[in-house]
Amino acid sequence: MVKQTVSSPIKLVDYADATGLRGRNLNFLSDMNKEQLMALFRLAEMLEPYTRTGLNLMQGKTLCTLFFEPSTRTRLSTETAMNKLGGTVISESNPLQSSSAAKDESLWDTLRTISQYADILALRHYDDKRVFADLPAATIPVISCGYGHVTHPTQGLLDLYTVWRVKGRFEGLKVLITSPDLSRARSGQSFALGLAQLGADIIYASPKDLPTLPEILEKVKSYGVNVTEVFDPTPEEHDELIMQSDLVYLPGCRIPKGGAERDLYMLYKDTFYIGLEPFERAKKEQGKIIGLMHSLPRFAGEFDFNIDNTEFELYFKQVGFGLPLRMALIVSMVGI
Hints:
alpha/beta; Rossmann fold; five-stranded parallel sheet; four-stranded parallel sheet; 14 helices
């Protein structure tokens, strides 16, 4: 808990220390408690003015980004965050072809090697079990930038930060997390873990054979918030779920084109299509603005792109809020 007195103004370092992240790995949002999450958000808010001008909090420090899966926003915003903090970046965006992983180097050895070069590592990997087995090899803090189907905590954190900056609260909010495939929706899993800790109620909507992972659902329910699962809704029922909510979250599909799992996602997408009409109707009939969030990338057929130019759009705002949030995360994990 950060305490402020008239004679002792709050400093960046106070909030960074209050996150409890210094020297630690970030694997799941459940690694942080409510107070630590709020300290991180307040630190990110303090850093927002410096997303353009920058400041030298990480001068002399190095971030390595190691991405075994494609990425635009997560990798570039993490690297930009370190640059804005005055640090340096070394990056490997295609390790299966251009690093020693292509010569069958173990992840264990790769992590131990990178620990000699960098002060913090941002890692994305397709195999969460392999990561958790080899993570002890790293002697520097590691940020999960997405492991398998299970966890993507930096996305979850920026999503939560967006809610806090836009809505100003979590308690009493009703959030619909909806997807043609919630079993592989790692950003949705992370977002839900944070929402539950902070007091928001959650509605899941998915096909019955592609539900939220049981281990995530159990953890979310353990926080004592209202959690509802709706399976195989009709388009009309899906619109009603939207109108009952304060926020709608789309985890998207992390499977590249050509994969069988992506084909399965596309099979169900029409049922879960989101149009502009329920948002406009909720505003007219209930007087509320329902925000639409998406972890991106998006593709045609998920929702009406006309929402881009309305007051319901939050997905590009999430991109903007991601930079100060990741700046705050780096500062907290490396330490000032």
